[in-house]
Specification:
The chain is mainly β. 12% of the residues lie in helices and 44% in strands. It starts with 17 loop residues before the first strand and ends with a strand.
Length: 84
C-alpha cells in the first residue's frame, strides 16, 4: 500500500519549509521585516508554520551573522534568533 502522496500538507513541518519568492510574501510581513532589519542582506523567505498557523520565515545576514526571523501574515514577529 502506498502512502497518501496527494495530501502532503500535514507532512510539511518546520524542517520541510519551502522557499518563497519575495513576491509571495505579504506586504505587511515585508514592511515589518524591513523596519526591524534594515541592514539585512542575503534574505531568503520560506513558507513556515507556527502552532498550525501560516507564518513566513526570513533567513538573512546582518552585521556578519546569520539570523532567522518568523512573522505571521499581519507582520507581527513570532520569533527571532541568531542562526548558529
Amino acid at each position: 500500500m502506498q502512502s497518501c502522496s496527494g495530501d502532503d500538507k500535514n507532512d510539511k513541518k518546520d524542517k520541510d519549509n519551502k522557499e518563497l519568492n519575495a513576491s509571495n510574501v505579504p506586504d505587511p510581513v515585508k514592511s515589518a521585516f524591513s523596519a526591524k532589519y534594515s541592514t539585512a542582506t542575503d534574505i531568503k523567505w520560506e513558507d513556515a508554520h507556527e502552532n498550525d498557523k501560516q507564518t513566513y520565515k526570513a533567513k538573512f545576514t546582518m552585521d556578519g551573522k546569520k539570523w532567522k526571523a518568523e512573522f505571521d501574515a499581519s507582520g507581527a514577529i513570532v520569533k527571532e534568533k541568531e542562526d548558529d
